[in-house]
């Protein structure tokens, strides 16, 4: 039997309660101050790849949308990350974080040192949004329901535990506290309206689960490679390399 909108929304929120990556051990390590400088750098490098692909994912989505109103509503997501003449944009803010932790920002932007598992997971998300139904593509974005909480935790934890953390370096997360609720309000309303059969509701729920798996797998890769440094795969960033000038002896 098709769930009511309230029941279906509760089902989606339960997925986040059980599967969102705020529960991953790497985030607990990061937010508590337990990461070494190089572990923080590895996170910044790999998370940049995800950030840089979000507007590409959204552009792929928009290329399939025939409704001008939906395209207009979705367009701001690309601008939020790529920036405009008035708005620096999330990608530029993330590179400011790379500067703050002592990385060569050109190296970070090149994505050369990204872990293979990070690349595979993020690319799979872009393909999912490009190839699956519009309902599933929007539903996959609903991890934004749970993002403000983790951004707030991250700001608090990084400010308390790391010397690089300040308003400038953490500007990406501070900005998302106001951007994400706008995006999720539209996305959630759209999914609740369009998922009007049990089959569609099941598909949307599975899409959200897929996205939580994408986020979780990125942290699994980081934890495996850099919390246990002996398991860094060939071609991935090596600690102590590609640091900004003056950081050659940082560790």
Please describe what this structure looks like:
It is built from 11 helices and no strands. The model has no long low-confidence stretch (mean pLDDT 95). It starts with a helix and ends in a 24-residue tail after the last helix. By secondary structure, it is mostly helical. It has one domain: Heme oxygenase-like (Heme Oxygenase, Chain A, Up-down Bundle), CATH 1.20.910.10.
Draw up the topology in text.
Elements: H1 5-19, H2 25-31, H3 37-62, H4 68-82, H5 90-100, H6 105-110, H7 116-131, H8 134-140, H9 147-161, H10 171-194, H11 198-227
Helix pairs in contact: 1-11, 3-4, 3-5, 3-7, 3-11, 5-10, 7-8, 7-11, 8-10, 8-11, 9-10
EC number: 1.3.3.11
Pfam family, one: TENA_THI-4
Function: Ring cyclization and eight-electron oxidation of 3a-(2-amino-2-carboxyethyl)-4,5-dioxo-4,5,6,7,8,9-hexahydroquinoline-7,9-dicarboxylic-acid to PQQ.
How far apart, in Å, are the first and last alpha carbons?
57 Å
Query: What name does CATH use for the topology?
Result: Heme Oxygenase, Chain A
Strand content: under 5%
Number of strands: 0
What's the architecture in CATH terms? Up-down Bundle
CATH class: Mainly Alpha
Low-pLDDT parts are none
Largest sheet: none
- What's the total helix number? 11
Helical/strand content category: mainly alpha
Level of helix content? 55-70%
Note the run of SSEs as H and E. Answer: HHHHHHHHHHH
Radius of gyration: 18 Å
Counting structural domains, the number is 1
* Overall pLDDT level: 95
Q: So what's the overall shape? A: globular
